[in-house]
């Protein structure tokens, strides 16, 4: 197997040994661990960058660097694998049918110059990608289509594309409904796709979301419908662990000052394609917003909702085992939240915990077990490139599959993305501006009740 030069360099650096007075220590090489996009306070321009450090190092040593500048006001990045190599797609959404071309990037290159810049007409407002062999599957929020892309042909869009729900007659939605592509996950030879539905159009009313199962033709990339399941309203996660999918659903439109009564966590058993639904216990606040599973003994669930003015998120992060995910009364609170910002998400790996906390990125040096455990490194939009700016998307950067860390991420599903949370962030921000009468005009916040 041929390894690219950049990866060989990282292997050699990681293997260097320092001998001091008869003892030795492995000197690991810093690498890009976490990707992000930030925008200015007026959502008029953006940039992309990475947080780097030793993969098992202390977060206090982590640094950030800007990789791409001159982006528009809604950029986001997504991680995937092309064969054994980790890749990014950077998209810029401009709320029109003709967006700038996507950029395919090597996340571990010194500079993030695009390897190729394809345009995919069947994807508007890209929200998720997943791959199998040379086939990349992409879905966008606006069109609710699944596009099939051939990575071996310059990432060209193929003739295969599928429109939710009309491509599959067994799925029906109300006439006039607005439908949205939210998530994609490949497990073995199957693709799973998550779609949300607004039965009356707009964004104020939601029906149950739908997860669709397909088999993949690995020769042509074509998809064959197998089955579908209804999950919670306004769902946006599709996390995979140990042959199960975990789907967090807000339960409807985000509310000011209260959670949705229909919020829930659905656990889909892929062996039977059946679901188990988890709801909150008495005393828990917030909507189910995110989940991350490290191993059988360590899982985290984040519940929260905005306060009455949409200024702060109120909620908690809980720790439990995978076996006890269906028993919320046994969960342990490890973080209480009362913080501003709009982009929220959690991710734990074997050595640390990442918390996309509204408008900052908190990094814990280990896996929190109580509220006494705190982050030792924080990055704000000001530190990442825009004074008073906003986080717009974030993602864990998976190493190449030839590394042990990359293989572990692939076995649990492709690296965690928080980009699907961006729509929730945008809707909450707009709701806050409407509620307070504040609007952003030419980068300035003004009072307006129009």
From TrEMBL:
Residues 1-28 form the signal peptide. This is Uncharacterized protein. It comes from the Bacteria. Keywords: Signal. It comes from Sporomusa termitida. InterPro entries: Gal_Oxase/kelch_b-propeller (IPR011043).
